[in-house]
């Protein structure tokens, strides 16, 4: 349907028709790529959500309320009055958001002033937190299925997982493996959030984070925007471990560029803050793709701090199309990039919906669909506006609306219908 | 990382690095394990799977011979590790209950119920 905008009357003079056709072709190609990008993002987001929901449903650990909380949410929610609870949750959310904002600013400052060493050291430390998280999860999974596991095998498993992960994400590795790692880590983080954030706080945080995302990305002084622009100026990939990239190389620009094109996957695991921008990964020479020189670049950023220090997530979709003349050498990152924070919050929303909703699968599915629709719309907007866009607001907004609506309106409706054996 | 985009030398060097990294890690653990073998079978698995097509299914090019060598060595190491791990896991699962205290000490999670 967007194609139709370029309708040409059939009686146009020949050369113009040819030109127009070429333009139309380019537009078609653009749109085709756009659709493909959307699909390519759907798959990992869906996978992540599926993993989270499956884990929540099967491993009861994540829905137990042990009364444990993160240090960032010190106010309990099982208070006597509703007012008290609301107040506590608002305070919790405020604390979390402040922490996140501070961390974001710190990261942006570090990136801007090129303090790569600090970033690398931090990310190494944070990796150890990932290990502990994984072992906790594994422990719970094994307990659920009543399996015995010895320390030796466990150590080997975790060691392998960690080392290969580090190599894939920070250095070079097969694309699929990177994507798999990022999805796993995002799922883990989402599970942690689901377990340790009390109810109202979680929903409030989702809402506030969306607003913050909107502001941080679109305002001229927003930290995320600064980050993206700095990265563009320097032509470096952003925080190689914080962004999920759907593909390595799509179309590459001209003949002889040897620019590294990997903006790939970032581990958004909160425990990691790999910010090894210091080493823009070299090595993939571009191929000549026959003259099609428009590219889509969408970038999203997401950063998560470690649990113990701070947690931040930000997302942003940025798209830099470049319809440049063939002469230029360009290092375009092709493919769509989505920040890991987005993954985490999407999965967190769906996971929370499946964990706590009374409507169970209805609500979960509704939220899932809502998020995907939001993602589609966001990508559409990306195509139209061609600049960095926050990926959270639309999806989370839809997700929240659907969740509360389904839980409170649709489910009783369906129950009544079933009760009266009235099928629509 | 898309392998097709890399020139051959880089593919070779990548394959070699994947193989060597695992051996390098083994140096660290040399004082732990007298065998001195690397503790990274997963990495070798990745190496094998990733470079398999390059090494065996593509028409020959100059570096392919070396890549083949590395893939074969990785596969060998992988098989060895799989054998070792399988043996250990079988022994552990079978005899865990009988070992009593030692078995519990080794266990990360202990299943409930009667073995």
TrEMBL record, chain A:
It is a multi-pass membrane protein. Keywords: Cell membrane, Cell projection, Endoplasmic reticulum, Golgi apparatus, Hydrolase, Membrane, Notch signaling pathway, Protease, Synapse, Transmembrane, Transmembrane helix. The keyword Cell membrane applies. Residues 1-23, 260-332 are annotated as: Disordered. It comes from the Eukaryota. The PAL motif is required for normal active site conformation. This is Presenilin. It comes from Astatotilapia calliptera. The gene is PSEN1.
TrEMBL record, chain B:
One of its GO terms (biological process) is Notch receptor processing. The keyword Lipid metabolism does not apply. Keywords: Membrane, Notch signaling pathway, Transmembrane, Transmembrane helix. The chain crosses the membrane at residues 20-53, 74-95. It is a multi-pass membrane protein. GO terms for cellular component: gamma-secretase complex; Golgi cisterna membrane. InterPro entries: Gamma_Secretase_Asp_P_PEN2. It is found in: Golgi apparatus, Golgi stack membrane. Pfam families: PEN-2. Belongs to the PEN-2 family. This is Gamma-secretase subunit PEN-2.
């Amino acid at each position: 349907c967007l194609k139709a905008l370029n309708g040409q009357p059939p009686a146009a003079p020949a050369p113009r028709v040819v030109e127009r056709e070429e333009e139309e072709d380019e537009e078609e190609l653009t749109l085709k790529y756009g659709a493909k990008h959307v699909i390519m993002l759907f798959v990992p987001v869906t996978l992540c959500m599926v993993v989270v929901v499956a884990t929540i449903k099967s491993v009861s650990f994540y829905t137990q309320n042990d009364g444990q909380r993160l240090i960032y949410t010190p106010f309990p929610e099982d208070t006597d009055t509703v007012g008290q609870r609301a107040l506590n949750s608002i305070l919790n959310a405020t604390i979390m958001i402040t922490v996140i904002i501070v961390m974001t600013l710190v990261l942006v400052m570090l990136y801007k002033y090129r303090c790569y060493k600090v970033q690398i050291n931090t990310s190494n430390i944070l990796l150890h937190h990932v290990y502990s998280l994984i072992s906790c999860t594994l422990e719970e999974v094994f307990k659920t299925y009543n399996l015995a596991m010895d320390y030796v095998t466990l150590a080997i498993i975790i060691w392998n997982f960690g080392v290969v992960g580090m190599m894939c994400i920070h250095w070079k590795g097969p694309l699929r493996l990177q994507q798999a790692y990022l999805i796993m880590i995002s799922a883990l983080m989402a599970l942690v959030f689901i377990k340790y954030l009390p109810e109202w706080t979680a929903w409030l945080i989702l809402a506030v984070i969306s607003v913050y995302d909107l502001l941080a990305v679109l305002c001229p002084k927003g930290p995320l925007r600064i980050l993206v622009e700095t990265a563009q100026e320097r032509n470096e990939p952003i925080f190689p471990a914080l962004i999920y990239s759907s593909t390595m190389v799509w179309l590459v620009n001209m003949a002889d560029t040897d620019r590294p094109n990997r903006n790939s996957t970032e581990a958004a695991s909160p425990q990691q803050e790999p910010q090894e921008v210091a080493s823009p990964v070299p090595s993939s020479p571009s191929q000549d793709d026959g003259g099609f020189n428009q590219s889509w670049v969408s970038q999203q950023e997401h950063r998560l701090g470690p649990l113990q220090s701070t947690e931040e997530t930000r997302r942003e979709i940025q798209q830099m199309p470049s319809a440049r003349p063939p002469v230029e050498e360009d290092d375009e990152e092709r493919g769509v990039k989505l920040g890991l924070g987005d993954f985490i919050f999407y999965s967190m929303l769906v996971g929370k919906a499946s964990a706590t909703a009374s409507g169970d699968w209805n609500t979960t599915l509704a939220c899932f669909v809502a998020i995907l629709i939001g993602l589609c719309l966001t990508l559409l907007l990306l195509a139209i506006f061609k600049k960095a866009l926050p990926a959270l607001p639309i999806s989370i907004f839809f997700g929240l609306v659907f969740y509360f609506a389904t839980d409170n309106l649709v489910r009783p409706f369906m129950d009544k219908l079933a009760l009266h054996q009235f099928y629509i | 990382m898309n392998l097709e985009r890399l020139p051959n030398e880089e593919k070779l060097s990548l394959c070699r690095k994947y193989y060597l990294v695992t051996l390098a890690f083994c140096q660290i653990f040399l004082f732990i394990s007298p065998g001195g073998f690397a503790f990274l079978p997963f990495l070798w698995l990745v190496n094998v799977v990733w470079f398999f097509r390059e090494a065996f299914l593509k028409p020959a090019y100059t570096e392919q011979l070396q890549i083949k060598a590395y893939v074969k060595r990785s596969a060998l190491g992988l098989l060895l590790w799989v054998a070792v791990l399988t043996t250990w896991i079988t022994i552990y699962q079978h005899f865990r209950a009988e070992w009593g205290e030692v078995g519990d000490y080794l266990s990360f999670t202990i299943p409930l119920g009667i073995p």
